[in-house]
Every structure is written in C-alpha cells, then in structure tokens.
Write a structure and sequence with these properties.
The complex is a heterodimer. Chain A has a single domain, classed as Orthogonal Bundle (MetI-like fold). Chain A is built from 14 helices and no strands. Chain B folds into 2 domains: about 60 residues, no CATH class; about 210 residues, MetI-like (MetI-like fold), CATH 1.10.3720. Chain B has a two-stranded antiparallel ribbon. In chain B, β1 and β2 form a beta hairpin. In chain B, α1 packs across α14 and α5 runs antiparallel to α8. The relative contact order of chain B is 0.13. Classes of the chains: A mainly alpha, B mainly alpha. The interface between A and B is large, with 102 and 97 residues.
Chain lengths: ~290, ~280
C-alpha cells in the first residue's frame, strides 16, 4: 500500500519535473555550450571554440560598461526600494478610511505590466513634451527649451532607469514588509512603549531587527528582479546613449538576438549566473533555518 | 494631556503626508495616461500649454485610431488565448505535482518543492538565447504557440509552490477516510481535495494569467510579425511608427490594458506574496 502510494506520487509529480527539466534545464545547459561555441542565428551544428567568446567580451568596452552599469543599477535600486518601502509600510500599516483604494494606487506599478508602465514613463520623460520639463520651466529652474533631455544624457538616463525600476519594485517590497510588520507580536512594541520607548527607538531597536528575515527576503527577490531585468532599459533607452545605460541582460539581447551572435550573447548572459547562485544559496539557508525552527 | 494629543496629531499628519507623497509618485504615470488619452493632438504637442489641464475640449480620436487602425484588438485576442492555454497547461501539470509533493513523498516532498521553486528564479534573460533556437527548431517561431510552450516553464514552478501550501493545510484524515470508503488515491484527489482547494486553484489561475500578460522578454524574442504579438510587446514596439509616436493612442492602450490586469492581480496579491515569504514569517 505505502509502496503503491509512493509510485503514484512519483507518477504525479514527474510530468511537472520533466516540463521544467526540458524547458529550463536543457536551455540552461545549451546556454553554457553556446558560450563555448561559435553559434550564430542560422548556423547548425556545434563548433567548440574554447574561451574565445569570453576573451572577446571581456575586452569589449560595451561589456565592461554593462557589467559596471548592472552593479550600479542593482545596488542603487535596492537601496532606494528598501528605504522607501520601509517608510511606506509603516505609514500603511494601521487601518484608515479608504485604505484599500490607497493600497490599490500604491500597488499599480507592480501589478500593471512593466512594459506598459515603462512606456508611460517614456512619455513623462519625453525630450520635448516632458511634464517634468514643463514644471521646471514654469518654476524658472530652466529657460524654455533649456532643460536637459532626461533620457539623452548619460547620467540622467542612468538615474531615470534606476528610478523607474525602483518605482516598479517599491510596491512589491512594501507588501512583503507589511506582511512582516503584521507578524510581529503586538505585545512587544506595546511593552516597549510602556517602558517609555518612543517611535524611533521602537522602530530601530525592536521592529526593524525583528523584521530582518523578511527584509532579507525583499532584498533577495529585489536583487534578482533588478539584476536580470532588461525591460525597463530596453524600452526607455535601449542601452543608450553610448551604452551608458546598457546592462548585462540588455547587452545579451542586443548581441545574441538583434546581432545574431548567439554564442557571444550566451556568454554575456552567463555573467548573471554567479549572482543567481549566491542568491539561491542565501534562500536555501533561510529555508533550512525555517525548517529547523 | 494636551501635549500628548498634539504629538499624536503631528504623527498622524506626517503619516498622511507620507502616504500622499507616495500615492502621487507611484500612481502618477497612470494618471498621466488618462490625460494623454483624451487630449487633442494640438493640445498635447504644444509646449506652451499647461499640460495638467485640457486647453481644448477632450477627444475620443485616440481611442478611435487605436481600435480602427491598429492591431490592438488582435493583440488582446492573442494574449487572452495564450493566457487561457497556459493556465490550462499549468493546472494540468502543477495540481498533481503539488499534491504529490505535499502528501506522498515524505520529507523529500518539501525539498523537491523548494528545488522546483528555485527554478522560478532562473530568469528569461538567461534562457532566451537557447530557447529561441529550440523554438525555431520546432517550427514555432513567429507564432503564439512558442509562448504557449515556454510560459508554463515559469508558471508551473510558482504554481506548484503555492498549491503545496494549500494542500498541506487540508487534514490528511479526510482523504484517509474517503479511501477507507473505497476511493482510490486519484479518486480522493479529484473528488475531495480539488473541490475544497478551489480558492487556491483560483489564485493560481489568476496569477498564471497575469504573469502571461506581463511577460516581455520571450514575446519580444520569439515573435516578430505585428499580427502575432501579445499586448505587452505590441503596444510599446508596434504602436510606434518609424520615429513617430502616437502618444495619445499609446497611452490609451497602456491604460486600458493595465487597469483590468492590475485590478485582478490586486485581489490576489497577498496570497502571491505569501508564496515568497514562506519560512520568513512564522
């Protein structure tokens, strides 16, 4: 009976495992193989070229820029997202009239398709008809037609890409933080208040330390979603001007798909793997800790 | 204590001020889509005009253009079809898998569950190059069938993970009793467990569907003809003609597509987030 049950069990989960193995496992292995080959769109067969692709991309200024930009993009977006969502989750915690509607408005950037949200920003940051430009001209910060092009100058373009991606992730992180805040037993902050601890002391000495596991969940997922994303960059700037906003995934797309050089594209995208492995390690550690507890 | 009340009032005021700032920052692009949707072109493209108000009467021209002269409706249809098929495939594969992992395979169930969930973290931007070749090899390039095949690779892992949580909360004794009454393991699963897990299954249906509508990278990579596009790629890439942007119609399309998806997703968001935080919250 028990043995039969186990057979039935294997039979029930094997199809799902097979689907994942075929459409994630196989491409993952192929990505590694391509990186050591000279595969291009249209070619067939496999021709091993050793580390040739890695040698050439490591020498390419575009790749170095992309690697640097990816780090800047990921780290700065995470800092902005964590700070903003911590503040927002405190403000959003206690009930108030109309809370569900405020919550819906706050969640919009995450729940709407990102490619469409990014197009909305592209209009807001338009080189001529930008509303931001209009406001700054109206406030006499710039003369008419004297404002910079937000997506046309390297530093401003990078700042735009980081801010739009942060805009997208703040709601996700806020909901995770809210879940964390509601899981803190109410007696602890209350006892602290009775002992005379004010708002800041309660936050920094009690709530934030107790929320560390949940904050780390938000950071781990946020890092993955940012480091591997190319949608925001592709739509807002397509990596420009002069590769100043090119990130690793968008360069892999530009090289491998648009440039038809599958091998070089695959080699570039493999640079995502170390970060993914690191994050998976931290997640497994967290899961293991939860299992033991 | 008047001092205490004053302080409390101050904190409350600060709290609403913080909320107001965030609401404006986060929702502004969508408000801005509404404005662009109904503005006449000569009002929209005039830097002298105050962009926040309607300097000329509102118009429905952009909506007319969108529905009559673009492939927008076709893209909506493609997206709905892919969504429904991917939901179906996802349920067929993930329901039995989640049940088996929650019930039948002992301590290994949880571990395999975690391993399956971790594959959700392998991003499209790592897999799209080999997958583009696989898709071409199967002759599915430039058709929505490429997406029907590939999308379940990221919806199944998340769905298995979510459903495992639901199935674990159902008492085992219920099925044991049913099996004593003569049902097989399969019978118990289909007649007993599935009906009482409807809310969990509904969550998976909504999520799979919204994930399909939100995906961008695979759709951009596998499909080039305009008529085969999904909304998420069709709108940002194909509503741009040459160097000309039809901002009014573009924003109208963004708005009309985003809002229903956002409303649906919003209803189930907490359960989705719970899938990420299992283990971190006790």
């Amino acid at each position: 009976m028990a043995v039969d049950d186990r057979k039935v069990g294997v039979f029930m989960f094997l199809p799902a495992v097979a689907y994942i193995a075929l459409l994630i496992g196989v491409p993952l292995i192929l990505a590694v193989l391509y990186a050591f080959s000279d595969a291009r769109i249209g070619t067939v067969g496999f021709h091993f070229v050793g580390l040739e692709n890695f040698r050439s991309i490591l020498q390419s200024p575009s790749f170095r820029a992309a690697l640097r930009n990816s780090v800047v993009f990921t780290v700065s977006a995470q800092i902005i997202v964590i700070v903003a969502s911590s503040i927002l989750s405190i403000a959003l915690e206690a009930p108030f009239p109309g809370r569900w509607f405020v919550r819906f408005l706050i969640l919009l950037p995450w729940v709407a398709p990102i490619s469409l949200g990014a197009i909305g920003w592209k209009w807001i940051l338009d080189s001529i008809y930008s509303v931001i430009t209009w406001v700054l001209v109206w406030a006499h910060v710039f003369k008419p037609y004297g404002a910079p092009m937000w997506l046309g100058e390297p530093t401003l373009a990078m700042a735009s890409v980081v801010l739009v991606h942060s805009w997208r992730l703040i709601p996700f992180s806020t909901v995770i933080m809210l879940a964390g805040r509601t899981s803190i037993p109410k007696e602890i902050p209350e006892a602290a208040a009775i002992d005379g601890a004010g708002f800041w002391r309660t936050e920094f000495l009690i709530n934030i330390p107790m929320m560390m596991p949940i904050i780390s969940v938000a950071v781990l997922f946020g890092t993955i979603f940012t480091f591997t994303d190319m949608t925001v960059v592709y739509i807002l700037t397509a990596g420009g001007p002069y590769d100043s906003t090119q990130v690793v995934p968008s360069l892999a797309f530009a090289t491998g798909i648009q440039g038809s050089d599958l091998a070089a594209g695959a080699a570039i995208s493999l640079f995502l793997v170390p970060v993914l492995v690191l994050i998976a390690y931290f997640m497994l550690r967290a899961a293991h800790r939860a299992e033991v507890a | 204590m008047p001092g205490g009340d004053g302080r409390k009032f101050g904190t409350e005021a600060l709290r609403y001020a913080v909320l107001a700032v965030f609401v404006v920052l986060l929702a502004f692009p969508f408000y801005w889509m509404v404005v662009a949707t109904f503005k006449q072109n000569i009002d929209l493209y005039n830097v002298e005009n105050n962009p926040f108000i309607f300097n000329l009467p509102p118009t429905l021209d952009h909506l007319r253009l969108l529905f009559n002269e673009t492939r927008y409706v076709r893209w909506l249809g493609n997206t709905a079809l892919v969504g429904v098929l991917v939901v179906f495939i996802t349920l067929v594969f993930s329901l039995p898998a989640a049940y088996a992992l929650a019930r039948l395979t002992g301590p290994w169930g949880q571990r395999i569950g975690i391993a399956i969930f971790l594959t959700y973290l392998i991003p499209p931007t790592l897999l799209f190059i080999p997958l583009s070749r696989i898709v071409a090899g199967l002759g599915l390039q430039d058709t929505i069938w490429s997406l029907v095949l590939v999308y379940p690779s990221f919806t199944i892992p998340f769905s298995v993970w979510l459903l495992m949580g639901f199935f674990k909360s159902i008492p085992k004794e219920l099925e044991d009793a049913a099996m004593v009454d003569g049902l097989t393991r399969f019978g118990a699963f289909f007649r007993l467990v599935v009906p009482i897990s409807i809310s969990g299954i509904l969550t998976v249906v909504i999520f799979t569907f919204t994930l399909v509508t939100q995906e961008f990278v695979y759709a951009l990579t596998f499909i080039s003809p305009e008529s085969q596009q999904m909304v998420g790629v069709g709108i940002p890439i194909f509503l741009v003609r040459g160097d000309v942007y039809f901002w009014g119609s573009l924003m109208a399309a963004c708005l009309m597509t985003s809002l229903p998806i956002a409303l649906l997703y919003n209803l189930f968001l907490d359960r989705f987030i719970a899938g990420f935080t299992v283990g971190a919250i006790k």
